[in-house]
Design brief:
Distance between the termini: 70 Å
Radius of gyration: 29 Å
CATH architecture of the largest domain: Alpha-Beta Barrel
Number of helices: 16
Strand content: 15-25%
Mean pLDDT: 91
Number of strands: 18
Bound molecules: manganese (II) ion
Amino acid sequence: MSQRVYLFDTTLRDGEQSPGASLNVSEKIQIARQLAKLKVDIIEAGFPIASPGDFEAVSAIAREVKGVTVAGLARTNFEDIDRAWEAVRFSDQARIHTFISTSDIHLKHQLRLTREQVLEAAVAAVKRAKSYTADVEFSAMDASRSDLEFLCQVLEAAIAAGATVVNIPDTVGYAVPDEWGRFIQTICSKVAGIEKVIVSIHCHNDLGLAVANSLAAVINGARQVEGTINGIGERAGNAALEEVVMTLRTRKDYFDYFTNVNTEEIYRSSRLVSSLTGMKVQANKAVVGKNAFAHESGIHQDGIIKERTTYEIMNPAMVGISKSNLVLGKLSGRHAFRQRLEGLGYNLSADELNSAFIVFKKLADKKKEITDDDLEVIIDEEIRRIPHTYALEYLHISSGTTIVPTATIGLKRNGQLIEEAACGNGPVDAICRAIDKITGLNCTLATWGINAVTAGKDALGDVTLRITIDGRKTYMGRGISTDILDASAKAYVSAVNKLVWENRLVEDIAK
Ligand code: MN
């Protein structure tokens, strides 16, 4: 029968130890809420004694995020454990996670303790934690480099003292899958009482093996996997939970295990963690990278269009990505081009498709990747020939840190100049308001983004934005200029032109 693997997410503890990633309390709560939606089993919310901020975050998550176990980390000293309990006590499923090193390297050089002292400290810590909560996890830090006999002795003592989860970390990312699997198997067969507890592993990615090691451990008896979203963490990071989950699910034929995770929340979790920590996800990252479901080669694109499973082992919808991306570039054929346009809602005649394809090929020679926005511009300009009802004549902005941003704008319509001025929360907002005054439309800016077209200080800014009136349909506009405010104004005007044309809002358009 298929067995459950519990997921222990330490994005907020080990993940936050990533160089450069630091989160404030409200950001941690946001991530914890998302982790609860993702349905991980345990959230390690922080290391309460480490700082008042950490304590506050763990305690807020324990109070506010329900339906999930909340763990607080503690060394073996009682101050740590008491503090961890204070932080997690208001969770309805509170866990204390206490740890001490068991490797001789750490004992000798860092802790300066004998093996006997470590054993005693572990037992005392577990007992102290157990006096607060039934759910106690004990970790033998640097287990992968520990003497196996001694490690087993410590784990046995921790279980006898009341630990309900014993974690075996590869703290420094030293393990390799086959050997690590046998190591876990030995522990599972040798340690007295191990059948009463959950065996956990915590693998680091120093050699790029964290996920492989985690899975090898599962096959050999581990039932809790610790890891982080996007694999962030100390040094090269931890096992990426999304990869563990999707491997178990995709290769169900091989791994007879299941998790409780709602995989459709994976992508959203990844994006949230990436944006709040500022740690970008590499494009070729498994499962959640920008290119994870992108197909560039013409042969692959052709296969995907005929049948998705020809080149995709996972359905992107399963991880919460709405569609896979056929990357349109100069190698793409007419078939992929038409399919993408249809996906965007354009049904062109054969003639229109031909002329659009010619423009597309020309653009693809200059630009490596043609985006959906590029395609929309091609269609708007070349095929639909949307009339320029309004044209930007001039733009004047005053902005700064001590004044209210104000925009004065002149637009031409039917050869007539119309001028207006408006204030805003920022210069872009002021521009949008001034244009709205001229057009009499009350548009909402749905998105605004900028890309540098070229490198260097004189780079051209390419602003793409979307506006909406009813909150449903959005109209895309684009503007390019060395001045990003000028680019924004042009983009806004082009979106307005599309909106008025599609909705027939003006009768007197000069074509
Ligand atoms: Mn770690």
